[in-house]
Amino acid sequence: KGTPLIFERSLPGREGFRLDDPDVPGVDLSETLGGEFLRQDLDLPEVSEVDVVRHYTKLSKMNFGVDDGFYPLGSCTMKYNPKINEEISALPHFTELHPYAPEELAQGTLRFMYEMQKFLCEITGMDYFTLQPAAGAHGELTGILIIKKYLEITGEKRNKIIVPDSSHGTNPATAKESGFEIVKVKSGKDGLVDIAELKKAVDEDVAALMLTNPNTLGLFEKAIPEISRILHEKGALLYYDGANLNAIMGIARPGDMGFDVVHVNLHKTFSTPHGGGGPGAGPVGVKAFLKDFLPKPIVEREGEKYFLNYDLPHSIGRMKAFYGNIGVVLKAYTYVRSLGARGLKEASEMAVLNANYLKKQVEDLFEVPVNAICKHEFVVSASNWKEKYGVRALDIAKRLLDYGFHPPTIYFPLIVEEALMIEPTETESKEALDAFAASLKRIYDEAQENPDLMQKTPHHMPVKRVDEVKAAREMKLKY
Amino acid sequence: KGTPLIFERSLPGREGFRLDDPDVPGVDLSETLGGEFLRQDLDLPEVSEVDVVRHYTKLSKMNFGVDDGFYPLGSCTMKYNPKINEEISALPHFTELHPYAPEELAQGTLRFMYEMQKFLCEITGMDYFTLQPAAGAHGELTGILIIKKYLEITGEKRNKIIVPDSSHGTNPATAKESGFEIVKVKSGKDGLVDIAELKKAVDEDVAALMLTNPNTLGLFEKAIPEISRILHEKGALLYYDGANLNAIMGIARPGDMGFDVVHVNLHKTFSTPHGGGGPGAGPVGVKAFLKDFLPKPIVEREGEKYFLNYDLPHSIGRMKAFYGNIGVVLKAYTYVRSLGARGLKEASEMAVLNANYLKKQVEDLFEVPVNAICKHEFVVSASNWKEKYGVRALDIAKRLLDYGFHPPTIYFPLIVEEALMIEPTETESKEALDAFAASLKRIYDEAQENPDLMQKTPHHMPVKRVDEVKAAREMKLKY
Amino acid sequence: MRYIGHTPFQVKEMMKTLGISEIDELFADIPEEVKLKGDLDLPLSLNEVELKREILNLARDNKAGEYINFMGAGAYDHYVPAVVKALVGRSEFYTSYTPYQPERSQGTLAAIFEYQTMIANLTGMDVVNASVYDGASSLAEAVLMACDIKRKNRVVISGAVHPEYVETARTYGFGYNKDIAVVPYTESLETDWDKIDDMVDGSTAAIVVSMPNFFGVLEDVKRARDIAKEKNVMFIVVANPISLGLLRPPGEYGADIVVGEGQPLGNALNFGGPYLGFMATKSEYVRRMPGRIVGETVDAEGKRAFVLTLQAREQHIRREKATSNICSNEALNALAATIYMAYLGKKGLKDVAYHSHIKARYFIDEVKKSGRAHIVNHRVFNEVVVEVDNLEQKYREALEQKILPGIRLSRFFPEEENRLLVAFTEKRSKHEIDFLLKALGVK
Amino acid sequence: MRYIGHTPFQVKEMMKTLGISEIDELFADIPEEVKLKGDLDLPLSLNEVELKREILNLARDNKAGEYINFMGAGAYDHYVPAVVKALVGRSEFYTSYTPYQPERSQGTLAAIFEYQTMIANLTGMDVVNASVYDGASSLAEAVLMACDIKRKNRVVISGAVHPEYVETARTYGFGYNKDIAVVPYTESLETDWDKIDDMVDGSTAAIVVSMPNFFGVLEDVKRARDIAKEKNVMFIVVANPISLGLLRPPGEYGADIVVGEGQPLGNALNFGGPYLGFMATKSEYVRRMPGRIVGETVDAEGKRAFVLTLQAREQHIRREKATSNICSNEALNALAATIYMAYLGKKGLKDVAYHSHIKARYFIDEVKKSGRAHIVNHRVFNEVVVEVDNLEQKYREALEQKILPGIRLSRFFPEEENRLLVAFTEKRSKHEIDFLLKALGVK
């Protein structure tokens, strides 16, 4: 029958949760609310508690998480999510705190927010941080709006934002959402920003360059000092997409590279879980001259007292209600406190070691667009598989599922055909990397021996290959 | 490779948890403890945190719990375990309480213990309760030792305990462990204690009769008033095995039936989870004349203050350190508070309705030893399957696994050949019962069509049919 | 506490494989001038025992947990059932990524499909996305979406919408160069419909109204619909999802887009996040909606399966032409909301809404009976604005009695002195409300 | 809150199927004279919101949680790692029954097999059962087991064994008609070996010694072994499993049966339970051991699998001839202990033992330095007996400062006035110990 839905367990009159016998008098709703405001029917499931528990327990087993195995999804930094973070962030002292609670009764939360702002400044080399953005893309939007507001205040008319062709899709989308025109610069054969191209692109209309470093090929943009000079000389700013920060913690800092605005992804670099797609947290850091443009409020300290500072004269306003995904921030905070400076550096070192080691194990199977030391991730191309056996990156991904792995990111970055973008992270052991490499080799053999079979993969999953076209065509979006 | 073990992930030098840099001075252990006391090596796994998480997550998926589906294990009352009980019993106020904490700092726990004693008295019709026994069998031992001590104090020489042939194995084992001689009485054709046989067995040497009511065939011993008279007239006592209490809450009480000592299984009747075999809790209740024989201490109340009363002059002593499986008691307490009198009665009513309904659905497939209204469970015999197709109760059980159910208890009670003992409990819906019945029918068809295949079941489990003989022969009991 | 999988020996083996003798060699491509000299200046690492001790000490500085909570204003202290926490805590859900591989993500996908269905039913709309960041950003996205659909640049928002939502819409609007016009609320804390009507001009794409509004009041949504219809602008409603247990679904009174904060549906307060914004619209606008959407389909054997669909709207496919830049959303919070709605169901959600409402009504009736304070708003769902003499003093006194008596409106509107916004949920007992009434000098 | 799966309509349908019109008809076989008239007298049912509120109020009456805890005496405040709680909380583990169907219970079975292995390694013994109720009952079972093996009826127990363990052994002994002889401890709080030697006679099956003993002292286990050997009795050791991170395994010094309380291995204090008793012995005695045992085998395809084995010892097969009546054990607690041992591993368990020990040593050294109190015991692992003038007063003062300073020995031995048994774990910081020292007037 396929994937089950809770609605199929519903039957009129069945009950899970209920409240009866209130301790205050009942009312006639048509009097207190007015008859025209009342709804007639409410179409929600009618199920028992055991129905709910069994259904979602069953659904959970149709999922795959980091706790189930290797999850080398490039660009997503699927590292292990420490259990102590979950335990701490579930403490009622934190979870039951109302956002408008008087500050003197919320000093614990305000303190870790303040300290986390400081930690992020230190790790990235920036001067001020806001914790408000709820995710990476949200952080990008915040950062670009800060730049826009800065230009408005300084009276400069700059309407272009440069993004490399290897950038995340969120970069151009963000720049567009902020009202900028997008200028794309090509990557060179070495997979890095083509400096000559960049120079051509940079003029007085350019507001900023958005850059991921290491970039989405997992390569460090070593010309970053020059890139910074090129941009700054023309009065443009540098925006750092922090998706790949896990490669360089304690080794190099965006602030020291010349970036003026950065966002970081707490749900990537700082070990907070991705939750099946969220919540994340995308704090944004700026150099001192941009402090007053941050969204309101940020946390500051006066003596022993922590408080919310709304006094940011040029603030862009706010990106959401309240102060950010604070429950997520707390998990990242416990992570930083657990690892300290040495631990964070070690995390980056091992992430890079793992990526290079795994690359070495599998590179013979693929075409490698750029053969260089990589950072935390690397990209290979299955175009040789496609040519020789008609087996695509997608097929490889599906077959990896059968072998008990989550597949890498595929078809990104767009500049590599049949791309597989592999990010092992530091929390994987050599055994996991070796097992993954061995499976890829076995799949390569399978592709040679029986290429047709590959299109029928996966075989051992809760469902077989899913028809995506039908979904988009029929648009059945609710039960 | 089969079921994995943590040892296979171990590698010298790998670390999960560690403590470094103590905040007090280090010592030379050979000085502080003495060299001859120190161990040379400690052979425990060396694994990382993610290894531990993935291994036990994987093992968990090789298990089946009530949250996964229908679990009609007769005599075990595998009802749904409410999540609120788990949440409440995990509150640090309860979990972090030391058993020797001053009573004035432990009033919360002492209060629910006190109230639970009272609730159990009310539900069973007894006068006093101890929460100390850790499980049903432990409760039985407690109860029988109370009887033994009572006889010692009253100076009576009675060395026999009567158990029906349908009794749980714990009953004779307990009686033996308490130094009694076991007298078995046969059941009649109606599945109930044969009163004539019983009368013959009861003499001045009999200390007590141990009885489960409803009995293990799921039948109410309706002659219980007479049974009680027979025993009491001869000066013997009545012991109630509470394993089947789930059939009669709020409907009939052992105390009112004439039982002098009872134990209850909180992990059956009162919804606390079985934990893969434990912990349980087996509180024991007695009539007033036996109060002074209870193990020490029990909780009592003076004004608003709850305290541990050790003043029980004829106490048998204690059955374990401290006061019982208090964490389990708390879950049972929340259950009673959630349901109240009406809810408990409804639970029993629905448990009995479900058993009778399911019996009706499947009885045509089997031989039914006694055809009568059952209580919370019923027993059928697959001897017709065995005769006709060579398919045994064991095969049916294994095949049920393939259909997504946990099988019933098999080969118990011993008085029924090829027994299947089915207890659906009140928390299952009609749909679950119908699906189970339908699967049994399908298995019956399969048994007819392809009996040989049945011995190869289960097909779809993490492992195939397990070789129990080899395990017992080779005795490989550690890695 | 390093969360590293290797042994030291393995690290050496791997380095040998790579032909390096120092880890630093892997960072040789980083120019010396941008390399960090020395260590980061961070507190020393803590082992788990120290960490737990340290954080528990910090946690205890959040004293508010011991207080009886009457605060609302967009974040509500509804009861989160144990079932929700237990199931959301299954690691297969929370340690997974966005369900890009449907064959191994049916759990998340099916749950989102259920979420879309339940929110659609709750709001009376056709299609729902998989969540956005929170209530405020859901409004901002709706504003941009309406402007996009109508190809206009101005939106008129009622001043009785949550002020932080308005501010967020303004910030997003600043990016897209949209004009956000806000119409001050009336003395009775309602939307000023005449002014709205005045302000909607030819460049206007939509009007926005909150139901109930920031002050707890049920707005005259028919009037809103009529204006929207007459002026041919879109009608955006910000709704409290719990209130929809009792109130008419906005789809029934003509809403084009319904957004709101999903936190009250089974998510903890968490000092403001993570929450989830929900977003529902009519079928015709589905391709203009931001965020992920799950659709039903079949697998290769024809069995039902679910998959992310209509991805051509999204940034990872469409880049600068996407409907929004959103990527990560609030999937786990949406899962909590889904399980919450499933568990409470038809009856339970009504119960929660009803209990919240009658607790507010009890407070109102007691205040009116006493005559010692003044109820400012009328026709409220679960939030009451009460005017109390010497509010500051009474507010302090209430805190001393471990009551969070509500939110002073002057926090948002300085002119609203002596006015307190008090929220009620099913968690507040009569006893607790009486306690509050006494603290406010009303009882 | 009824936890019933049916709808009212389904109940009617089912009744119809059964041909009954009242549920009562299903109870027609219960004689009227034993039927309950009216309802049980229990508090009214609470919905989940009310229940949580009610129990939180009750929980807050347990004030001890806010105190710094130096209490031990058989239950220890060691750190329980988050990993242990998270994994034990997986419902597949905790909502399952005894693994009678091995094909669907490999999770529990493999974990027990690991537990058996780790406890065997920790204690230096050959075979281990799947757990018994707790430390005290594990000793009681060991006493019965020794009597059974030796076919004798008397056991001599050191008076320096936990008094509640002794009492439990007596109670079990009462059942089986065994004679439990207890030898008073010496002034230095150790076992009186000469007296033990005297008391072991021809009817004696075993001697029992605790290591470390109830007072924290490492006993002269060689002497114990020599006596046992010479007199041909069994040698039973009660061990603290954390101490075995540093101390020689009892198997190395000749123990025949090793038992103890497994709570310190990743299980919470829980006011005394649920805990787990562990029990290890030599191969030759395996068939005399009570409780469940898991063995390795293969499945029909020859793959490794695990199964309950040697069940012929158990009550459900052997009934009155079983080695014990035990059925339910403490499987989930044993699972916690297994995960704890796996997670800490070789190094971590040593760390925890070492840290616990050096914290005790720090206390001892500070007391000695001050000269204001008297350390009574020597060669301790993690528990110290300190003699303090006016203990009662200082005890009260410590409580006022939110310290649980330990356990007054007079609780167990009225003659031991002014003596306090103080326990140390890795959780206690130097700062906290200094605080205790001050409260006791030592610093």
Automatic annotation (TrEMBL), chains C, D:
The glycine cleavage system catalyzes the degradation of glycine. The P protein binds the alpha-amino group of glycine through its pyridoxal phosphate cofactor; CO(2) is released and the remaining methylamine moiety is then transferred to the lipoamide cofactor of the H protein. It comes from the Bacteria. The gene is gcvPA. The keyword Ligase does not apply. Residues 1-440 form the Glycine cleavage system P-protein N-terminal domain. Keywords: Oxidoreductase. NCBIfam families: PRK00451.1. InterPro entries: GcvPA (IPR023010), GDC-P_N (IPR049315), GDC_P (IPR020581), PyrdxlP-dep_Trfase (IPR015424), PyrdxlP-dep_Trfase_major (IPR015421), PyrdxlP-dep_Trfase_small (IPR015422). The keyword tRNA-binding does not apply. It catalyses: N(6)-[(R)-lipoyl]-L-lysyl-[glycine-cleavage complex H protein] + glycine + H(+) = N(6)-[(R)-S(8)-aminomethyldihydrolipoyl]-L-lysyl-[glycine-cleavage complex H protein] + CO2. This is Probable glycine dehydrogenase (decarboxylating) subunit 1. The glycine cleavage system is composed of four proteins: P, T, L and H. In this organism, the P 'protein' is a heterodimer of two subunits. GO terms for biological process: glycine decarboxylation via glycine cleavage system; nucleoside metabolic process.
